[in-house]
Amino acid sequence: MSSLWAITPEKVQTAVQKIIEVSRPRKLILFGSYVRGGMNSNSDLDILVVTGDEVKNPREESVRIRRALKGIIMSMDILVVSESKLEELARTPGLIYREAIKNGRVVYESS
Hints:
alpha+beta, 4-stranded mixed β-sheet, 5 helices, Beta Polymerase, domain 2
């Protein structure tokens, strides 16, 4: 992957701010190789967007977020889940949600 697609702190901050503006999440968690410090040229930025239960369709919310991030040139994997569903999923061994909760870094939490 070219340096144009490199994940930089500036791009990450821009992505976080755009997600907050568009989705008004309860919480944003970065996880995966970016947080562990094991990134390579094929890495992407893993973002868990935790919404309130008022978001009925996480897939549609993910599309809205991706549209807002269109101008940011870096590979991103965005997971959208409601707060109540996350509690259930985080208890299930082997799911990525558990990894995100256990080892991720919260970069935004609504007050």
